[in-house]
């Protein structure tokens, strides 16, 4: 749904919020620092945005703690929190075009995805957690007749949500939805590449009725703003999504400060395992391509490894190559575009570096590798398929975070599972087969937080999302995420 909007005209007139949102007010950084947010669509500066420093972090954490202690949100009746979150979701829908534009200009994703997927999911997730909060019951422990022990869930306090740039609104909603619903005060730190939707979201939260200090947004960098939050003694939890190395840094920050809880969701090298009896190779090729090319491959659970049984390798590869060529790179503001820009020049260089490396490691460049230019000055790369990839090589093992599919062959289900599990990551995997028993056995044997059978990337707020190993142990979505932002409390009554 992108309607009849003239997106280029809207982009030309776009005036985003650029100040921090602290304690219910718009603020410049205490030291006046700013940074430019640059659009990968055309390389132009979209806006100069406030850069939060240590003083701003202290101010925000202080406000977050104060309002938490006051209890206007943390101890508000669940029905009250629900009403505010439902209103918040409605305001996201009201401002869908503004938020979608912020997202597309910041990170270069196609406007129709920003509208139909990112903004829509953000609103739905906020509403889902709002709806959930007054339908959960606490418990009474079976301690026997001489006592009554209640187990209630308490919010944690001040939660810092630190998110990356690939799905700014979706990942933000996965954190702030359950954290706010549970009664916490939240400080959101968006990635430096994508601050604009977050800064607008803060204003919508206030308009919806969140008390001052309950949702604050600090735009800024990682080593400055992010680290100050991670090291802060008054922050109770960090909910992090991003790279493996930064996740480890947050765990170190916690150890060096107050031992705060840290939930990490990091990258992946997810396998799409296609067995010899896979049903309908056209459908498989379609899912394989969407699994790796969606969002220009900048997806933590991108299906970046195609492990295909030798018997169907050629037939599937033919179809994948045909389908890949249909993912034409275009202007992110064109509502027909399905493949937009990659987030910046650093990411583009990284992707191209991996394609060069693959060739030097002996892989065959079956399609792609080029640098199209639908909008001058932007950062774009073609959908790329590498065949004959050695499972032990770097392109088969390291996260590229671009539209690059590494194809390797296996001999039967057991060998396929062995190759699929040969990774430090464990975020997602798929298996394609017509045999129900093989499907069950293979799904159980794949070490991944999500396994799809005969599909890829099916998702719902009702199911947990997260991984094993280097993908991090945190889980977003579902009622389990609500539990992750609260702690059980026992109250023992002697009778
Ligand atoms: P990143 O780790 O560089 O940045 C993520 C966030 O951490 C940003 O807000 C950044 O400012 C902050 N940060 C960076 N360095 C920091 C430091 N030293 N101290 C404190 N904060 C710091 O990640 P990225 O490159 O922006 O994002 C891509 C990564 O995110 C990929 O590896 C991808 O797989 C992963 N990812 C994972 C999931 C998931 O749910 N598992 C979802 C999306 C993305």
Automatic annotation (TrEMBL):
Pfam families per record: Aldedh
Cross-referenced InterPro entries: Ald_DH/histidinol_DH, Ald_DH_C, Ald_DH_CS_GLU, Ald_DH_N, Aldehyde_DH_dom
Keywords assigned by UniProt, alphabetized: Oxidoreductase
PROSITE patterns: ALDEHYDE_DEHYDR_GLU
Active-site annotation: 265
Family to which this protein belongs: Belongs to the aldehyde dehydrogenase family.
Protein name in the entry: Aldehyde dehydrogenase family protein
Record organism: Actinomycetospora chibensis
